[in-house]
Specification:
634 residues, alpha+beta, Rossmann fold, 8-stranded mixed β-sheet, 11 helices, 20% helix, globular, Peptidase_S9_cat, serine-type endopeptidase activity
């Protein structure tokens, strides 16, 4: 019965609108992304709860309020190519901004005012200031990212940093003199914090080039005397630490030896919003900045995720009166939340007129799966409410420097409704479980992570699941893991779903966008020094071993994992007679961002898995029925 219900249910789940918080102003107005139109567009939610659509572009839009003005800086690309452009939207006008495409929402059209436009290059919004924007661009040489400040009124630009490399984050001090930025350093999944003096362009490294340190979310104190950063320097888990410019010293602000923490300093200079990652459940708390003391834990539903990973980072309003963030859980789709520091109240901004999620949704249990080398893989197990039929789909996250968390996933929910158990592991190399764990797949240890799939397969009978009816599903690096599982462990898996995955680590590194190559070589190994191992660890090298049916999805404009990765694995499998379904979407990049494409692809994926994971008796009956139908029609 579950399998019969699932095709309709997955369409229902995919059509539930999603809301994500992008910004909040000092009046309490929320800038949100809302995808009711079929892709994530900007809307404004007033403090009285009224909604107003701001953009109606062909593809997803992101943005920030411009402080001191009723305006939004909009970031958008074309067809998922990630060559983002910046535009300005005047909120005193009426209607919704379009890019000239048909607007099905019935709103008046309001063209965006180009702010930084050159479709050959990336212009990534790094920050907003009164009258100006900070953005990162690779237009100097296509590889290195420079940090540029642009005056919105005059168009005057000033390059604040051109020291080379792939800059991850950049934040200017309130007085405008300093910029703190993070960039990858020598060890894999490690970052260097650099302080740039904008008066003379001099750079000072605040952490070492060879330090094995993960850093993120630099945020300044209001007097520009120092900044907060989330760092695991000298420890296993990330903590919130303070750097003082005058004394050139560091001090701990909030530390939890058992959990990763990420913090965002309030513009009031007195508080810090801290995300606590507890085995993929992410809560939020307010701490005092001076001594780290807990002020209050925000009362959010248990078992969900309030920040990090696929959700945008929380953001404070310019005065620090309000904060905005996104919350979701396996039982509830994403919605925006406004926190009022004065009244300590939370206000949810859910999609208007959205029906309640289906009652068949289930929450996962937390598992630890043993491996032959003595490790234990953090894993979530989703079981159908009726126990299911023993079939199982292992869903592997991308990254690899990422984490599966307790977030909304219509795919997982649809698979469970179809009667499959869903196993969601954080294999070695995942973040969220300490520095040692995320380093265990670096470079030539790549196949140790693939071996974790075999350990998961061995564990299935221990939880009552059928190892003979197990499939793999994953996107990006997760797609690589799917292909590697099928190639290196062909006897274990009956099917795979590969979404924007890597077939050959060699050709991936050769053909990925030039600005990403060195960044990815830090994780996987370099073409110059590790080519033999990269070839050995590539699924395409062992394509002769693959015998499981495969479903491949890719965006034609993917700048990260080129379409050629999908094309070559599909061609190789089809030449060997291995069943392989292949869908390419011409208006997508690294994944499917548009609902129309999701509705085309994912119900077909679930039907594919229902067929491949059906109990043997049902498969035989379906085969006989098909044969009889063919004979009768002849």
């Amino acid at each position: 019965m579950a399998a019969a219900v699932a095709p309709g249910l997955i369409r229902t789940l995919l059509q539930i609108p999603l809301v994500e918080a992008r910004d909040v102003d000092d009046e309490g107005r929320l800038l949100v992304g809302y995808d009711v139109s079929g892709s994530m567009q900007l809307h404004e939610v007033d403090h009285d709860g009224t909604w107003r659509q701001l953009t109606a572009l062909d593809g997803p839009a992101r943005g920030r309020y411009l402080p001191g003005q009723r305006a939004v800086v909009v970031e958008h690309d074309a067809g998922g190519n990630e060559r983002t452009q910046l535009s300005l939207l005047d909120l005193d006008e009426t209607g919704a901004a379009t890019d000239g495409e048909a607007n099905d929402e019935g709103t008046d059209e309001l063209p965006l005012r180009p702010l930084v436009h050159d479709p050959r290059w990336i212009h990534r919004l790094a920050g907003v200031r009164p009258g100006g924007v900070l953005y990162l661009t690779n237009r100097r040489n296509g590889v290195d990212f420079d940090l540029v400040h642009r005056d919105v009124a005059t168009g005057e630009e000033r390059v604040l940093y051109d020291g080379g490399g792939y800059v991850m984050e950049a934040q200017a001090s309130p007085d405008g003199r300093w910029v703190a930025l993070t960039r990858p350093n020598a060890p894999a999944n490690s970052y260097q914090l650099v302080l740039v003096d904008t008066t003379d362009g001099q750079c000072r490294a605040l952490t070492g080039w060879k330090d094995d340190t993960f850093l993120r979310t630099p945020s300044w104190l209001p007097d520009s005397s120092g900044l907060l950063v989330s760092s695991n320097a000298g420890r296993e888990m990330t903590a919130v630490v303070h750097y003082d410019l005058t004394s050139d010293t560091w001090r701990d602000v909030v530390v939890d030896d058992a959990h990763d923490l990420v913090g965002w300093a309030s513009p009031d200079g007195e508080h810090v919003l801290v995300a606590v990652n507890d085995d993929g459940e992410v809560g939020l708390a307010i701490h005092r900045l001076s001594d780290g003391r807990l002020v209050r834990t925000l009362p959010l539903p248990a078992g969900g995720c309030a920040a990090l990973h696929r959700h945008p980072d929380p953001v404070w309003s310019p005065s620090g009166r309000f904060a905005a963030f996104t919350f979701s859980s396996p039982l509830e789709p994403p919605y925006a939340v406004r926190y009022d520091q004065a009244s300590t109240t939370l206000t949810a901004a859910r999609a208007p007129d959205t029906p309640a999620p289906p009652t068949c949704l289930v929450a996962p249990t937390s598992q630890r799966v043993p491996t032959p080398d003595g490790e234990r893989i953090p894993t979530f197990l989703y079981r159908p409410a009726d126990g299911g039929d023993g079939s199982v789909v292992v869903v592997i996250h991308g990254g690899p420097e990422s984490q599966s968390v307790r977030q909304w996933s219509p795919i997982v929910a649809g698979l469970v409704a179809q009667g499959h158990a869903v196993v969601v592991p954080n294999v070695r190399g995942s973040t969220g479980y300490g520095k040692r764990w995320y380093a265990l797949d670096d470079g030539r240890r790549r196949l140790d992570a693939v071996a974790d799939l075999a350990a998961l397969h061995e564990w299935l009978p221990a939880v009552g699941l059928d190892p003979g009816r197990a499939a793999l599903y994953g996107g990006s690096y997760g797609g690589y893991m799917v292909l590697a599982g099928l190639a290196f462990q062909p006897e274990r898996w009956v099917a795979g779903v590969d979404i924007v995955g890597i077939a050959s680590l060699v050709t991936f590194l050769e053909n990925t966008s030039s600005y990403r190559r060195s960044h990815r070589e830090r994780e996987y190994g370099s073409l110059a020094h590790d080519r033999d191992f990269l070839h050995e660890a590539s699924p395409l090298t062992r394509v002769d071993a693959i015998r499981a049916a495969l479903f491949v999805i890719h965006g034609a404009n993917d700048p990260r994992v080129p379409l050629s990765e999908a094309e070559q694995i599909v061609a190789a499998l089809r030449a060997r007679g291995v069943p392989c379904e292949f869908r390419v979407y011409d208006d997508e990049g690294h994944g499917l961002a548009k609902r129309a494409n999701q509705l085309d692809a994912y119900p077909a994926v679930l039907a594919f898995l229902a067929e491949k994971l059906a109990p043997p008796v049902r498969r035989e009956a379906e085969d006989e029925s098909s044969l009889g139908s063919q004979v009768g029609s002849g």
